[in-house]
Every structure is written in structure tokens, then in C-alpha cells.
């Protein structure tokens, strides 16, 4: 039962992190939203790390081991996003393109994991 709590925490963190990109596009026209966007961007780093931690805990509690599973692939995608962030100075502007592009695949893979967790 505890693994479900970590699952929902991970879902909230994933969609919070993903929502910043479209929100930035929508809210950049509004002056009052700038403080929110700056705060959200700073918080994004911490929520991303927290997502890695809660996702790993959820997976381990649900399965009792690390195994190839749709959730493991989802978590690996989130880890890849974090690696892009760590390599941002080496990748220069490409890191953000890779980060955003991969983010859409991670969200799509979330739905695969949510609806078909035992796909393979």
C-alpha cells in the first residue's frame, strides 16, 4: 500500500516538472507571472531529484527488486533528463533541446506504465 503513496507523489512531481515548459510559453506575456516562473524554475531542480528518489522507492516497494519493467523504463527516462541537466555545460544549448524532447517521451511512457504496467 505504501508504494501507492510514492506512486502518486511521483505522478504529481512528474506533471509539475513537465508543466513548467508549456506554462512558460503561456505565461511569459503576463508580467505578474514572472515571479512564479522564476520560482518554479528554481524549484524544478529539486523536484526533479525528488522524482528520481520517490520513483525508485515506489518501484522497489512495488516489486521488491529491480527488474526490467515499464516503470523501470520510465524511471530511466527521468534519469536521462537529469543526466542532460548535469551535462548542460558540455552540451551547451543542445541540452535544453534534448531535455524537452525527451520530456515528451517520458510523459508518454508514463501513460504506458499507468495503463499497461505489465506490458512486458
From TrEMBL:
Keywords: Membrane, Transmembrane, Transmembrane helix
Top-rank taxon, per record: Bacteria
TM stretches of this protein: 6-23, 43-63, 69-87, 99-119
Protein name: Ferric oxidoreductase domain-containing protein
Lineage: Bacteria, Thermotogati, Thermotogota, Thermotogae, Thermotogales
Amino acid at each position: 500500500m505504501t508504494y501507492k503513496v510514492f506512486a502518486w507523489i511521483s505522478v504529481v512531481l512528474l506533471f509539475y516538472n513537465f508543466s513548467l515548459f508549456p506554462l512558460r510559453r503561456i505565461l511569459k506575456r503576463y508580467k505578474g507571472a514572472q515571479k512564479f516562473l522564476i520560482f518554479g524554475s528554481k524549484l524544478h531542480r529539486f523536484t526533479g531529484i525528488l522524482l528520481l528518489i520517490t520513483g525508485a522507492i515506489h518501484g522497489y516497494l512495488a516489486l521488491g527488486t529491480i527488474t526490467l519493467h515499464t516503470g523501470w523504463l520510465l524511471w530511466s527516462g527521468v534519469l536521462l533528463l537529469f543526466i542532460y541537466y548535469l551535462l548542460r555545460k558540455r552540451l551547451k544549448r543542445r541540452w535544453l533541446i534534448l531535455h524537452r524532447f525527451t520530456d515528451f517521451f517520458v510523459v508518454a511512457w508514463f501513460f504506458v506504465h499507468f495503463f499497461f504496467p505489465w506490458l512486458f
